[in-house]
Amino acid sequence: MQNHLSSARLATVEAFFQTRTKADLIGCYSWCQAVGASLLPILGDYEVSLRNALHRGLSQYYGTIDSFEWMFKTKPNPAKVSNPNAPDLAWHSMTPRMQGDIEDVADKVRRRSRGRAPTPDDIVSQLSFGFWEHLIAGLVHKAHPADMQRRVLSLAFPQGPAMGTTAHGDRAFVDQLKGLLYQLRDIRNRIGHHDQLWKTAEFDLHGNRGFIPRRPRHTLISLHKFLDRISWMASLRISEHRDRPFRLIVTAHFANA
User: Fold this and answer.
1) How far apart are CA 236 and CA 201, in angstroms?
2) Exposure of 52 in the CB half-sphere (CA atoms within 13 A)
3) 8 A C-beta contact, residue 28 and residue 17
4) What is the DSSP string of 16-33?
5) pLDDT band for position 75 (50/70/90)?
């Protein structure tokens, strides 16, 4: 392993963990790999839960069913009566980049299935974590009806007011979700890019970063707090007693690292 890692990277591990032998150095690096591997399923489970919740909230809002094509431009445009070439309207307003992400996924589905039209579930299952982060941020856009944010988020996060600050329809609620999701995505990227997981910063219930570990014992505290945060965020979607299995999964994954 040492032959494939840069001396600068190994020096960072050595300095942080204060290792004295090559065996200790590789052991600490391997420990970080094991912890990262144990955290990925937790983050993956939460991402699936998050996108399904938002998809259901938007589907219920636009189509009164659990899976509706809110991401496609299929809303009838009244202008077509006088202008057949008038463009279709989007059910839900999104940035050009988000629309491009949807088109990219749709193209992949068509290629893999030899031309089959993608379904809403096809699209939802393949959009990135960042897409949903941007989608939440866009709920406050003035192009959306005034009550849309409250109705969508109350379905996606029924326990949201337990965050202790705002209601589903307040912009502060969106800002809080954005801050928390940013921190989760950052940790997932650290793991995926084999970055310095040992320096994972603590963050509060608003997503504000705090103490950055300087010693291994700090890392343990920070990662345990991260597990508490993601478990707590999962509980915003479901009742407290139904959240217990998720909490047990979180604890088991970390214990096995």
Assistant:
1) 23
2) 9
3) yes
4) HHT--SHHHHHHHHHHHH
5) confident
Say if residues 67 and 120 touch (Cβ distance below 8 Å): yes
Which of 36, 17, 33 shows the shortest CA–CA distance to 215?
17
Cβ pair 220, 213 in contact under 8 A: no
How many Å from the N-terminal Cα to the C-terminal Cα in the chain?
A: 20
pLDDT in tens, 230-256: 988 888 865 443 444 444 444 444 445
Q: Which amino acid is it at 216? A: P
Phi, psi of 42, deg, nearest 5: -65, -45
How many Cβ atoms from other residues are within 10 Å of residue 25's Cβ? 19
Q: Is the pLDDT of residue 85 over 60?
A: yes
CA atoms of 214 and 145, how far apart (whole Å): 47
List of residues 6+ apart from 224 with CB closer than 8 A: 254
Give 77's DSSP letter: -
Note the pTM of the prediction, 2 decimals. 0.84
Taking the C-alpha atoms of residue 186 and residue 181, their distance in angstroms, rounded to an integer, is: 8
Average pLDDT over residues 24-52: 92
